């Protein structure tokens, strides 16, 4: 017969020797459901030395001592759970009610595996269906006299508690005397190891609050235990259990760090460049824009890529004096990635840094507040969500395969697309992350099978350090280094299709978009429109590509590049086809030229625009200084000035004969757009000094 129990007669105990991330999660879950827990063992040492997972006998001995004063209290209930891999999901009243329904005096959680002694399997009572047959020591509940009687045998600190309890349970006489049962249908306790197909996370679409259901018995267990090899699954479920969401991310607002501007943490800023990446100049601009006192930053840049060596040296020479310290290692130092990352970590320890902030070369910072915002989240390890622009490829994995490699989680897409906003405990992070000094000693990049990132994440998982990814705010993105061809001249220019966002940022004029809505577009001559289109970088890179290729035509009428082999109005030029950029340039016309054309020549729509002739022309006084009057074989023509008059050349320009109107003060990166046939007969004016480059397209011939 069970007595009526008031909640103040329920004593809850756990054991933890140090406040790990898992312990903090456990304490939070208890607080959320107003479960008052007494923690045993904090600050104590035990013979085994593993502070995250103290020996079972150590736990038994602590618990026995703690409940001895309660041993004769018939109306007191004792609940014991592990801490670092347990989440409470119900109130103490609900827990007690589930216990009472079991009709047991001592109820243990049950699991799928007979551990640690599988030879005892056949000694266990049989169970029906998908029930869990074997005792698990991670959680149990019982009346105080029965619990104390359970613990009366002597046990060494280093002995196994699960084996201890198993032997008691398998002794039928003792089992009957103690009124001892197993929660085989997971009504109160849910052990996760081996139960992946037994449970389902149900998330409320309005609040994002989660509940874990045992689908075999349609139960909602109150205490969830990530026993054995199920820690990653527990972490994933834990992102939604214990009211981590309530229409918004509640844990994102908890335990925040208030930054004291007079006493800011010292950060080791570790830039890691293990592979060639596009737009490295823009990457370094992002590093410089980090809004944090440089005197609190120790900068170390590691690179194994010759392509980036000069930019790194230039950056440190220009900005290094502002930092507390600034060093770099280059490709000539012959360090591999593991050594580079390890060097960064050792430097952080040497500098006694409070944190190390790793940023890989593919992670472009767009918001300079990223470091401050990560610090405020007050975690041992936290990273901002970075993804490839308009892609699902990101800097985290939501789950792991059995071999420790990538697997997609149920919420991965929602997190990457920011349909679900919060902070999530994940098993793998790369590219950009902040690590607190308390984790330095467990951080390792060494592994016989894993790459350095995977090795690091494995070391943190094994140490029980949670890796959080936050998508609460957009801080930056990943560039796509796939198929980045470093053998070509100015390789960034070739990446429009793989990195449209960064390509646009680098190569399209900052005033481009304003022109699409401008009331007036400048017309230096009738129906000749003058618009900003590309940056100096576009011009410089494309000129460099053409000059490196060097196959300028001879300016004669014979041209085997053309169908028929004849050019009526020849120039010294190189076609985009010759340098492998024809398809890219047609995309450029579609994305950036066509909208301006539709803006100025109202009513003409042709998408995508068609251009058989896209070429760069070179004018020199001693080569071809000018071009005779002619019509273009186009519906409209664009002419982009690729260098600067008065600096790179003198003279030059374009004269429209019908209107007796000349454009001579051309601007680098600006485009002339004019009709091709019939109305705009024109000529190229004489270049008197230097070299003039223009980029021509005959559109819709």
UniProtKB/TrEMBL annotation:
Its main location: endoplasmic reticulum. Gene3D superfamilies: q2cbj1_9rhob like domain. It is found in: Endoplasmic reticulum. It holds the Pfam family 2OG-FeII_Oxy. It catalyses: L-lysyl-[collagen] + 2-oxoglutarate + O2 = (5R)-5-hydroxy-L-lysyl-[collagen] + succinate + CO2. Its cofactor is L-ascorbate. Keywords: Dioxygenase, Endoplasmic reticulum, Glycoprotein, Iron, Metal-binding, Oxidoreductase, Signal, Vitamin C. Coiled coil: none annotated. Residues 605-701 form the Fe2OG dioxygenase domain. Its EC number is 1.14.11.4. One of its GO terms (molecular function) is procollagen-lysine 5-dioxygenase activity. GO terms for cellular component: endoplasmic reticulum. InterPro entries: Collagen_mod_GT25 (IPR050757), GT_PLOD (IPR057589), IPNS-like_FE2OG_OXY (IPR044861), Nucleotide-diphossugar_trans (IPR029044), Oxoglu/Fe-dep_dioxygenase_dom (IPR005123), Pro_4_hyd_alph (IPR006620). This is procollagen-lysine 5-dioxygenase.
């Amino acid at each position: 017969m069970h007595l009526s129990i008031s909640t103040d007669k329920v004593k809850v105990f756990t054991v933890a020797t140090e406040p790990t991330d898992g312990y903090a999660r456990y304490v939070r879950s208890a607080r959320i459901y107003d479960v008052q827990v007494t923690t045993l063992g904090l600050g104590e040492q035990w013979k085994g030395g593993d502070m995250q997972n103290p020996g079972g006998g150590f736990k038994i001995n602590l618990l026995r001592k703690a409940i001895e004063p309660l041993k004769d209290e018939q109306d007191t209930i004792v609940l014991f759970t592990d801490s670092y891999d347990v989440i409470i999901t119900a109130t103490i009243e609900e827990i007690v009610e589930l216990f009472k329904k079991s009709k047991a005096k001592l109820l243990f959680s049950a699991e799928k595996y007979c551990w640690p002694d599988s030879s005892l399997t056949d000694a266990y009572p049989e169970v029906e269906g998908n029930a869990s047959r074997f005792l698990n020591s991670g959680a149990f509940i019982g009346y105080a006299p029965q619990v104390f009687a359970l613990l009366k045998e002597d046990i060494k600190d280093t002995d196994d508690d699960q084996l201890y309890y198993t032997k008691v349970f398998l002794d039928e006489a003792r089992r009957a005397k103690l009124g001892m049962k197993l929660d085989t249908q997971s009504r109160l306790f849910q052990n996760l190891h081996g139960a992946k197909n037994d449970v389902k996370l149900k998330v409320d679409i309005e609040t994002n609050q989660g509940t874990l259901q045992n689908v075999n018995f349609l139960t909602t267990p109150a205490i969830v235990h990530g026993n054995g090899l199920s820690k990653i699954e527990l972490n994933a479920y834990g992102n939604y259990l214990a009211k981590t969401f309530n229409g918004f991310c509640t844990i994102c607002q908890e335990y925040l760090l208030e930054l004291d501007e007079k006493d800011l943490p010292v950060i080791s800023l570790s830039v890691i460049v293990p592979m060639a990446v596009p737009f490295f100049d823009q990457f370094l601009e992002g590093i410089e824009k980090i809004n944090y006192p440089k005197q609190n930053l120790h900068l170390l840049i590691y690179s194994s890529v010759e392509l980036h060596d000069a930019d790194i040296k230039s950056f440190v020479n220009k900005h290094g004096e502002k930092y507390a310290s600034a060093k770099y290692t280059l490709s000539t130092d012959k360090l591999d990635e593991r050594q580079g990352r390890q060097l960064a970590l050792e430097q952080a320890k040497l500098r006694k840094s409070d944190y190390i902030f790793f940023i890989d070369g593919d992670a472009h910072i767009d918001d300079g507040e990223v470091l401050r915002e990560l610090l405020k989240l007050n975690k041992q390890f936290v990273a901002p969500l970075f993804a490839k622009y308009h892609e699902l490829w990101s800097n985290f994995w939501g789950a792991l395969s059995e071999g420790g490699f990538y697997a997609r989680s149920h919420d991965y897409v929602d997190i990457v697309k920011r349909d679900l906003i919060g902070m999530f405990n994940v098993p793998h992070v790369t590219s950009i992350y902040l690590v607190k000094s308390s984790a330095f000693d467990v951080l390792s990049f060494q592994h016989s099978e894993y790459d350095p990132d995977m090795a690091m994440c494995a070391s943190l998982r094994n140490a029980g350090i949670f890796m959080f990814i936050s998508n609460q705010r957009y801080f930056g993105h990943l560039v796509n280094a796939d198929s980045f061809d470093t053998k070509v001249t100015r390789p960034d220019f070739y990446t429009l299709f793989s990195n449209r966002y960064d390509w646009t940022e680098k190569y399209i004029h900052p005033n481009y978009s304003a022109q699409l809505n401008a009331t007036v577009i400048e017309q230096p001559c009738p129906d000749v429109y003058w618009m900003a289109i590309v940056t100096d970088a576009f011009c410089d890179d494309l000129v460099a590509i053409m000059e490196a290729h060097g196959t300028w035509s001879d300016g004669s009428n014979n041209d085997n590049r053309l169908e028929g082999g004849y050019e009526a109005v020849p120039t010294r030029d190189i076609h985009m086809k010759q340098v492998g950029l024809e398809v890219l340039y047609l995309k450029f016309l579609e994305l950036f030229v066509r909208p301006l054309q539709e803006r100025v020549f109202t009513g003409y729509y042709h998408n995508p625009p068609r251009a058989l002739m896209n070429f760069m022309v070179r004018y020199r006084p001693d080569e071809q200084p000018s071009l005779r009057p002619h019509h273009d074989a186009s519906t409209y023509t664009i002419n982009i000035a690729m260098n600067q008059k008065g600096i790179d050349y003198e003279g030059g320009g374009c004269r429209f004969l019908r209107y007796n109107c000349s454009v001579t003060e051309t601007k680098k990166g600006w485009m002339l757009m004019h009709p091709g046939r019939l109305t705009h007969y024109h000529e190229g004016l004489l270049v008197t000094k230097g070299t003039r480059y223009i980029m021509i397209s005959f559109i819709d011939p």
